[in-house]
Amino acid sequence: MPTPQNQQYALIAHYNFWDSTGTSLGFKTLEQSLQALKNKELQHELAQVITLLINRIHQQESDLVCLPNHVIKLHSRYTRQQILAAFGAHSFDKKSTAREGVLEFKNQNLELLFVTLNKCEKTYSPTESPRVHRRPVCLSQATLPDSFKLS
Prior knowledge:
Elements: H1 4-18, H2 30-35, H3 40-55, E1 62-63, E2 73-74, H4 80-87, E3 101-105, E4 110-114
Antiparallel strand pairs: 1-2, 3-4
């Protein structure tokens, strides 16, 4: 039986390749979706790309203090789709419409804040959305400056 973490990775992989719900693509299960990717040529090419990308890693990723053993790691970059799948906003049958701002998960006592960190006058356009790398950050009362702490 797959672990919850492996299920998260599987759902992230599904959205990486298909970017749609499984049911809208005619798949009955997540496993069926991933089985559709079993193609020797595709797997060979993916292995080459993954090796190339792994060799480009310059930082060691680590667990988030507030979410140990989660698939989302510190010092890594994720797409919005990967984040939404990892935290359960996306499911196999339903794709979240969340885009920017705050996304709240009351059952996990968690809020995700989507913030563009690389805006500048020269490249920012209010009508055009730049490619943004989102980085996970854990905030707790202990790590916030006094001016931000809740009373």
